[in-house]
Amino acid sequence: MPLELIGSISDGLCPERIWHVAWHPSGDILASCGNDKQIQIWAKEQNKWVLAQSLEGHEQTVRRIAWSPNGKYLAAASFDVTTSIWENTSSDPQDIEFTHVSSLEGHNYEVKSVAWDSTGTLLATCSRDKSIWIWEMQEDNEFECLSINSGHSQDIKCVAWHPTLELLASGSYDDTIKFWKDIDGDWECLYTLSGHTSTVWDISFNSTGDRLVSCSDDRSLLFWKYFEGADKWKNVCKLVDHSSRPIFSIDWSHLNDKICTGSGDDSISILEQDKSASTADSEQYKVTIKHEKAHNSDVNCTRWNPKYPNIFASCGDDGTIKIWKVIE
Amino acid sequence: MSQMIMNNTLIDSIDVFDIIRSIKDPEFPNTLEELNVVNEDLITVDNSTENDYCTIKIYFTPTVPHCHLAPTIGLCIREKLNLLLPKKSKIEILIKPGTHQTEDTINKQVNDKERYIAAMENKEIKKLVLECIEETE
Amino acid sequence: MSGEDKFSSILKLTDLDYINPSQICIKPVEIEKTKPNGTSKIKIENDGSYVEVSEDGTEKTLEKATITLNDCLACSGCITSAESVLITAQSVQEFLTNINGTKTIVVTLSPQSRASLSNHFKLSPISVYKKLSTFFNQLGINYLFDSSFSRDFSLLESANEFVARYKKTIDLPLPMLASACPGWICYAEKTHGDYILPYISTTKSPQQIMGTLVKYYFSEKINKKPSDIYHVTIMPCYDKKLEASRNDFYSDIFNTKDVDCVLSTSEILDLFKDKEIDFNNLAETEIRDETFLNYDRANDKFIGVQGSSGGYLEFIYKYAAKELFNLDIQNKDIEYKVGRNSDFKETSLMVNGEKIFTFALAYGFRNIQNIVRKIKISTSTNKHCGYDFVEVMACPSGCINGGGQIKSEGGIKDNKAFTQDSENYYNDQLMRDPQNNLVVKEIYNSWLNGYFSQDSNTKLHTEYHRIEKSTNALNIKW
């Protein structure tokens, strides 16, 4: 079997529904969050995943978590309209001891996503209130609001930073993807990508930041390429009806360019570019593995390990976290 | 009277209708069946997928074409099914075509997993929904 | 043409986007349930009315649920700014209907609207005023006032209030936050009502002070009842329409609002189009009556203060420096430290190397967020937040860039330059300290019994109310 299950976390340790998993930059620690209002941090002990710490404080579902690039901070977006910031205050660099250091308030409705930029100084949050807030971390763990971006006409589901530039992308219930950049102190919407016919659930940049892939409620995947000459993002590949149900999650590996997706039909797929079929203007991507019944319910999130190639984690509505290996 | 359906039984549209017919309307002192909001003919159950889940599709008819509580009725239907169906099924709840002014908008909202789960985390909405789906006799 | 994007962004994000109340406004209407059992059907007649048909066939026409603007303001579950409710109640059409009655019509023009008209027509502020006079005379309007006049009261009261807070002669905390911007006030009441309200200055805005002056001081001068005057203001934003509709600015006794109708600058343009007015070629009516105008006859120029959002920071800073430390400060002595963006700056008064007080200017939602956040933290840790006064305005660049101002023909790209041009027209005026306004002085003596007196507190100050989130499940939008 091309997809091997190499680890699993479940059976009473996890909440009913796990929304998101995020790898620590070291690749050895995994954080998860869900409807039990907590954030769980898992570490490997001998060959088993054990709970290293449980972070409490949110009053409703924690929807998404994000590690800062240096792994010292963890941000968590919650339906309780706040975003919490946690710092690893352990004196031992190998140890896990996260303390709550700040609470970002201001969104009027549920916060859906949070993301750190590549430098670890900027944080973006997005919400059902249709706005994206850009925050800058100051000394003493305080945060200053740099911008409140309006533009989407509906609930914003996800935000993702470009891997190297100070450029933010967002996906929304309004079916579009928007790009945002700071121009002379004011953040403006540079590009709006239309193509999906329903909610955009997740987006992911490739490692060089000139490609973006998006997945949607419309059951399709769209691949976008940045054309520098024209200063435009264009759709170069469509995989429609990739799934029989909404596709909730997508991630583009920065180690080997593979793509993993998680879907509402309980399956996980791996995709790669079909180089033989691609031209300059039209690229082809194909599904190399479709693993049905990956979970016993909707797959909410799939994320590649940042250090170990071909390893990724998934989580779902069945309350389990699974670690997989792609066998080549 | 609805009961937990046994795990190894296949569900059909009558089972689904049996669960949702007695849901009370949030506004009027009647059940969804009495108001003709739900109807057995407008329910389809598909057990044919290779996966372990079954797909349920329910069309409902709001009481008036601009009924602002249509999304809430959708919420009640889903909650009650989630409580009483034995294993997770994929449930799609839609407005019967032509019976509401903003049916596309409502269909999207009612089937957005993040939205309906967040809605049920709101104290007031949860209370209202639980009252509507409560079995009284 | 919808006014949907015209309210300040702070209001738009505060609790919901524009909803047409006739479709989605869900203010619960009480229905008498006479029959506990049985079903009834509801049919819709051709005229759109709803008729309930009960089982025995009897028909009853159901009452149309109506909401008033006050319902909207009080309810935070739906909207503060129900576009269609406001636009209907304070539209150009309403204005034209009301000026044909028997009431005395008073129009108050704001200096920001005047500057916007100046920039659009490329006329001096004086020309704009004189041509407007001609136009309004044709419509039968009796008086055209300038809110720069009532702003002098607002500045004096705010400055005195600050000094009282600083000296702790009144039990209200620092930092004091400016209160002239209704977008900011609405946001504060709905989102931070549990801790921020005591910091907000109780002084009324220039619009509302003019309302009080017109209906209660001027009315007596012209021998009219307050309700016999129809008072219209021309303002740079739509949020001012909300302000005029507040219950606090309505008199039960006299059955009249302080300000009956607010028209934005761009609505005045619509009015010109509607009446087919060639504004540039209108004759100019010389200014004979200087009532409630800040006008210098010798130079034929208007008089004002530095700062196109009212100049609160500069005036209060100088006034406080004098009152508290006997220092004479000029505008040019005030040095600003600009923050992350041009809409945030601060300045500190130094005496003998010691920082005495720090004033800041925070325009736009993101800067307001940071101020509010700092205050919240200082409230809970009992530490000074770093500021003693903040001039808070909801719009980036302040009132000159309000949502109701006339926009550049070139679109958003040219807006910054266009706004700067409006600012230049705004500054085509003579500067005068409000303390030197003799008419204002006279009114303080005869009608108010001095700065920040008991009378001026009754007439020139207001209150704020925390707005609770709706707990009615039928109202909650998810």
UniProtKB/TrEMBL annotation, chain A:
<comment type="similarity">
    <text>Belongs to the WD repeat CIA1 family.</text>
</comment>
<dbReference type="InterPro" id="IPR001680">
    <property type="entry name" value="WD40_rpt"/>
</dbReference>
<feature type="repeat" description="WD">
    <location>
        <begin position="55"/>
        <end position="87"/>
    </location>
</feature>
<dbReference type="GO" id="GO:0016226">
    <property type="term" value="P:iron-sulfur cluster assembly"/>
</dbReference>
<dbReference type="InterPro" id="IPR015943">
    <property type="entry name" value="WD40/YVTN_repeat-like_dom_sf"/>
</dbReference>
<dbReference type="InterPro" id="IPR020472">
    <property type="entry name" value="WD40_PAC1"/>
</dbReference>
<dbReference type="InterPro" id="IPR036322">
    <property type="entry name" value="WD40_repeat_dom_sf"/>
</dbReference>
<dbReference type="InterPro" id="IPR028608">
    <property type="entry name" value="CIAO1/Cia1"/>
</dbReference>
<keyword id="KW-0677">Repeat</keyword>
<dbReference type="Pfam" id="PF00400">
    <property type="entry name" value="WD40"/>
</dbReference>
<protein>
    <recommendedName>
        <fullName>Probable cytosolic iron-sulfur protein assembly protein CIAO1 homolog</fullName>
    </recommendedName>
</protein>
<dbReference type="InterPro" id="IPR019775">
    <property type="entry name" value="WD40_repeat_CS"/>
</dbReference>
<feature type="repeat" description="WD">
    <location>
        <begin position="292"/>
        <end position="328"/>
    </location>
</feature>
<feature type="repeat" description="WD">
    <location>
        <begin position="21"/>
        <end position="42"/>
    </location>
</feature>
<feature type="repeat" description="WD">
    <location>
        <begin position="149"/>
        <end position="181"/>
    </location>
</feature>
From TrEMBL, chain B:
<keyword id="KW-0159">Chromosome partition</keyword>
<feature type="domain" description="MIP18 family-like">
    <location>
        <begin position="15"/>
        <end position="92"/>
    </location>
</feature>
<dbReference type="Pfam" id="PF01883">
    <property type="entry name" value="FeS_assembly_P"/>
</dbReference>
<dbReference type="InterPro" id="IPR002744">
    <property type="entry name" value="MIP18-like"/>
</dbReference>
<dbReference type="GO" id="GO:0007059">
    <property type="term" value="P:chromosome segregation"/>
</dbReference>
<protein>
    <recommendedName>
        <fullName>MIP18 family-like domain-containing protein</fullName>
    </recommendedName>
</protein>
<dbReference type="InterPro" id="IPR039796">
    <property type="entry name" value="MIP18"/>
</dbReference>
<dbReference type="InterPro" id="IPR034904">
    <property type="entry name" value="FSCA_dom_sf"/>
</dbReference>
<dbReference type="GO" id="GO:0051604">
    <property type="term" value="P:protein maturation"/>
</dbReference>
<comment type="similarity">
    <text>Belongs to the MIP18 family.</text>
</comment>
Automatic annotation (TrEMBL), chain C:
<feature type="domain" description="Iron hydrogenase small subunit">
    <location>
        <begin position="412"/>
        <end position="468"/>
    </location>
</feature>
<dbReference type="InterPro" id="IPR004108">
    <property type="entry name" value="Fe_hydrogenase_lsu_C"/>
</dbReference>
<dbReference type="InterPro" id="IPR050340">
    <property type="entry name" value="Cytosolic_Fe-S_CAF"/>
</dbReference>
<dbReference type="Pfam" id="PF02906">
    <property type="entry name" value="Fe_hyd_lg_C"/>
</dbReference>
<dbReference type="Pfam" id="PF02256">
    <property type="entry name" value="Fe_hyd_SSU"/>
</dbReference>
<dbReference type="InterPro" id="IPR003149">
    <property type="entry name" value="Fe_hydrogenase_ssu"/>
</dbReference>
<comment type="similarity">
    <text>Belongs to the NARF family.</text>
</comment>
<dbReference type="InterPro" id="IPR009016">
    <property type="entry name" value="Fe_hydrogenase"/>
</dbReference>
<protein>
    <recommendedName>
        <fullName>Iron hydrogenase small subunit domain-containing protein</fullName>
    </recommendedName>
</protein>
